[in-house]
Target: HEPN domain-containing protein
Amino acid sequence: MDKHEILQYWIESSDTDFSAMEHLFEKADYAWALFVGHLVLEKLIKAWYVHNVGINPPFIHDLVRLAEKADLALSEGQKDILDTVSTFNLRACYDDYKREFHRKCTRDFTKKWMDEIRGMRTWLREKLPKP
Model:
C-alpha cells in the first residue's frame, strides 16, 4: 500500500469504529462504547502520523504519547482529554480494572466522554487531508 492508501485505511477504520461506538452507546454497553471511542481517536492520530511523519505509526495506545510522536500540536485541554480517554483502553481490557470501570460508566459519564471523543474526532478529521 502507498502512503495515501495507508492514510485512508486509518481514517476508514476509525469511521467504522465510530459507528460501533454509537451503536454500543445506544445498546447501553457504556464501557465498551468508551473503549471503542479510544480506538476512534487512536486511529485518527495514527492517520495524522502517516500524513505527517511516516507510513508506520508506532504501536502505542497512550494517545498523548502517540500525538507527540506524530508531531500533533495539542492544547493542554486536548492533552487532558486524550489522557483520560487513554485510560478507557486499559480499563476495558484488563479484568482487574473492568469491574470498577463498568461501575463508573453510567449513561451520564459515558455521554460526557463520548461528547469529548466526538469533538476531538471532528478536530482531527478537519486537520487530515480529504480523500
Notes: The chain has a mean pLDDT of 95.
